Amino acid sequence: MAASLSTHVLDTERGRPASGVRVELRRGTETLGTGETDADGRIASLADGLEPGEYALVFAPPSPFFREVALTVSLDDGHYHVPLLISSYGCASYRGS
Fold it and tell me: For residues 55, 70, 68 and 50, what is the CA-based torsion angle, rounded to 10 degrees?
């Protein structure tokens, strides 16, 4: 079995999804997938068939302070959902379902 990964970005300052946010999935120096969030702030499947290991989700949010937010995650078999909550001067993430 392999891992799959999805994400979404919520603009907590404005209280709505953040559309058009570029997201990259990297493993080491290799970019495995890229996409932009849709009108609901989601990317349904950034990558499927991932081997277990460490990956970086790199977001380019619409913030005057955060130019890039990188989250390094450790994936095993199964599906992972990693959201980003962003405002002008704060951000948070969690493992979703």
Answer: 20
Is residue 59 within 8 Å of residue 21, measured between CB atoms? yes
Q: How far apart are alpha carbons 55 and 25 in whole angstroms?
A: 7
Structure tokens belonging to residue 41? 């702030």
Contact (CB, 8 A) for 71 and 52: no
- pLDDT digit string (tens) for 20-49? 999 999 999 999 999 999 999 999 878 878
Separation CA 82–CA 92 (nearest Å): 11
Q: Which CATH architecture has domain 3-93?
A: Sandwich (2.60)
Pairing state of beta strands 3-11 and 84-87?
A: parallel
What is the pTM (predicted TM-score) of this model? 0.91
Residue 81 in 3-state DSSP? strand
